[in-house]
Design goal:
With 407 residues, this protein is of the alpha/beta class. 65% of the residues lie in helices and 6% in strands. Strands 2-1-3-4 form a four-stranded mixed sheet, with helices on both faces.
Length: 407
């Protein structure tokens, strides 16, 4: 009887090419599913995710609560100065909704100083020869000072305009200065600084967390020699793809959860009107994150033979992630513009520029194309290094040794 043999698979060290899995799924899909299931049944991972969500929700909740709270200041005033303090109290909420002013009546200047010194009053507003003075104890009350200055200035202008037989508007005509930006607007620019830090922090945490997990998953199979059994059943390339896909799915799912909670919390703050403007860049960030998730983390595990060696084999990748983190925070101007097209910096900087309003949609598409091309090249190189170093268990390999190792 004639015997037929399955064709050899050059990516699997000459072993027979495996058939499709019995349930009809490709081998890489089974590996990906296993990676997901193992992680979802890991109590530390689930607890860490839940705690992070609670922290984000708590922070956004605190922001929403504090934004709606006003600080009440007690301002001491004598009978002669009381009308001005009454005006400050009446107009404070309109000028700054976080400031409320109560009046503390005192008989004279000595009593006012004593009230401020003893903590019974936060400040004392009184007239001096050349204007008004706001006296506090040990430090200036910034928000209160700003409100008092605006009210006193307006009162002085009204008095002078009345004496000149004109109006405040006529006196101020032509003297107003407004600000504008060539690209975007001031409110979005302020919000972008906070969101940019969130993008950079999430990229840093997720990439390191799942990168180290991926590297550990590879080296544990090498250290236990179970990879030699796995390699007889599925191609090494399929094993690599499955691990990358599984960990990428987990990382992206976490990012979606974190971003969703963050946007929900943002909708409860004074920045709620900007939620639609922020949502677009957040989606772009998730897309860029998927494309920029480094397949080389699998190589970091393949180059090591023991878990103790992962730190040294993954050091270059860790330094690259740190460079992306700090670069996204401190790069500015032309350097930021150029870096927003360079992988993997573009994974954080381009979504940030979209939020700032300094980038057009076609720039994001171009940067994403460059990132995908770079990711494809990385996967190609990583697959060769992974395939040639995975079965090497004699010790830590250099990239050059792994590249030239026989299959």
């Amino acid at each position: 009887m004639a015997t037929t043999h399955a064709p050899a698979d050059p990516t699997n060290a000459g072993l027979p090419a495996p058939p499709e899995a019995r349930d009809g799924h490709a081998p890489w899909a089974l590996v990906a599913r296993r990676e997901v299931v193992v992680k979802l049944t890991d109590r530390a991972f689930v607890l860490g995710t839940v705690v992070t969500l609670v922290v984000i929700a708590g922070f956004m909740g605190w922001q929403a609560w504090s934004a709606g709270q006003a600080t009440t200041y007690t301002v001491a005033a004598t009978a002669a100065d009381r009308p001005m303090v009454e005006r400050v109290s009446a107009e404070a909420g309109d000028l700054d909704d976080t400031v409320a002013v109560e009046i503390g009546d005192v008989p004279d200047a000595a009593a006012a100083r004593a009230a401020v010194s003893d903590g019974e009053a936060d400040a004392w507003l009184h007239r001096a020869d050349d204007g008004w003075v706001l006296t506090t104890d040990r430090e200036e009350q910034g928000s209160l000072t700003a409100v008092v200055r605006q009210v006193v200035r307006q009162a002085a202008l009204e008095q002078q305009a009345s004496g000149l037989g004109t109006t405040v508007e006529q006196l101020e005509a032509g003297g107003a200065v407004t600000t504008t930006l060539l690209s975007g607007d001031a409110e979005r620019a302020g919000l972008a600084a906070g969101v940019a830090f969130a993008f950079a922090f999430l990229f840093y945490i997720a990439t390191l967390t799942f990168g180290i997990t991926l590297a550990n998953s590879v080296v544990e199979e090498k250290q236990s020699r179970i990879v030699e059994i796995i390699a007889t059943s599925i191609p090494v390339r399929q094993l690599l793809v499955g691990k990358i896909v599984g960990n990428s799915m987990l990382a992206v799912t976490q990012m979606v959860l974190f971003a969703g909670v963050g946007l929900l919390g943002l909708s409860l703050t004074p920045y709620s009107a900007l939620v639609p403007a922020v949502s677009g860049p957040v989606v772009w960030f998730l897309v860029f994150f998927v494309a920029g998730f480094a397949a080389l983390w699998a190589v970091a595990g393949a180059l090591a033979s023991r878990t103790e060696e992962i730190q040294s084999t993954s050091t270059p990748l860790t330094m690259l992630v740190l460079a992306v983190f700090f670069g996204s925070l401190f790069l500015d101007g032309t350097a930021k513009l150029v870096a927003s097209y360079i992988p993997p910096f573009s994974a954080v900087l381009m979504p940030t520029r979209l939020l700032e309003g300094t980038a057009q949609w076609w720039e994001a598409v171009l940067a994403l194309g460059l990132l995908l091309a770079a990711a494809g090249a990385v996967v190609t190189v990583a697959e060769r290094l992974y395939r040639r170093s995975l079965l090497q268990t004699s010790g830590k390999l250099s990239v050059r040794q792994a590249w030239s190792a026989p299959e």
